[in-house]
Write a structure and sequence with these properties.
Helix content is 19%, strand content 35%. The longest helix has 41 residues, at 391-431. The protein is globular and about 70 Å long. A five-stranded antiparallel β-sheet has the order 3-4-5-6-26, with no helix packed on it. Strands 7, 8, 9, 10 and 11 form a five-stranded antiparallel β-sheet that branches. Strands 12, 13, 14, 15 and 16 form a five-stranded antiparallel β-sheet that branches. The chain has a domain at 2-50. It is of the alpha+beta class. Residues 382-409 are annotated as: Disordered. Residues 388-408 have a biased composition (Acidic residues).
Amino acid sequence: MSDYLPQEVLIKILARLPPVSLIKFRCVSKSWNLLISSPFFISMQTEQAIISKPVDAGTEQIIVRRYSKAQNSELYTVHIDNEEFPDDKNIKIEYPFRDSTRFYYRIVGSCNGVLCLSDDLFGQADSTLLWNPVIKRKVTLPVPQATFDTMGPYMFVLGFGFDVENNDYKLVRMAYVQGDYGYLVPPKVEVYALSIGNWREFSGEVPVNCVVEYFWSEVLISGKVHWVAYRNMGMQEKVENLIMVFNLSSEVFDEMQLPSALENELPINLNAAVLARSLAVVQYDERVWSKSCCIWVMKNYGDRESWSKQYNIEVDGGLGTILGFRSNGDVLLTARNRGLVSYNPVTGQIRDLGIFGTKDSFYVGTYVESLSLLVEGKEARERIPSDTETESESESECESSVEDDEDRYGDVEKSEFWMQSSMCQYLTVLLKRTFM
């Protein structure tokens, strides 16, 4: 058929097809393989996937991750953001990293169908991965320069996104040395670009005395990564909260002011978010045992005077975490003992979505199917038992797993609570005196 179609028409037709079909079509001919594997076509297909699903049409896709007690594994599902919030039956995600980490990865961010995973939730980080689940490709990042061996005790923060100007995925990594009275500033900063495949030291300026904690979520808006940060002014000085920004294209740091009501809030209670494509900040009453929260929105990007308190959210039994916002304005959050729920901030009505997992394992992000990592990545598939494993061995493993389930699941939830409580206690002791 391609012999009778102009090349431009053929490209436009192929760019509208799902990645799974395009992977198969590479076998049609050498010319199709070269076309579909080219950076130009991959970029075009991704752009087409983004613009073909407008957020106000109820067709946007949302990826949900949680840790399943029953399966002792992370589970990923893609949902269509309409009233029913159903699974997208056309997308099946195999999880290939069951034996690679303790319990589950932290998801740094999701961009253009690529997830950035970091193994740093339950101990020292061993690996950082880029993963495209729909085409089953992964990239394992090399070890950065700043490690425990080179710096001693330290804490690091990652930011992930897509550099539109250079058509490249990038990560920025800030490593803070642990001092006697908190983290030392400025941090050691490194930048990773997928096109280069290695970390390089950042030589530009970093906002003065700013600290970002690794467990605070990033927000990606217009090619810029945003985090809540606090300015460390020393032992006797007051701490000031702000938004720290990194432009992935120009590789320049910047800072933005928060509303005056949040400047001197305990920073552990704040987290960045995106609401209707605008920068937002969630303010919890408490971080671990939260009963309520409010959401602030910057209506005009970069204008401090445009911050306004948009919603107050209260959930019977207590909140878990605000995870994201739906195209209809509902808030996706976790509620204690209820799993993932959809909350209408105007009426206060809650709808259980029937998606369950351990409390802190949930992640929600917008999702598109793309060919990203097709060329750079390696195959990432779920491990299949080898032919040498006997049936009796498999049954024995299953029985052992069932016997250990209660202890293992308890370990997951206890570890989640211990990690979050420890971080909150540390920051509260370190910073609370400056907010008194």
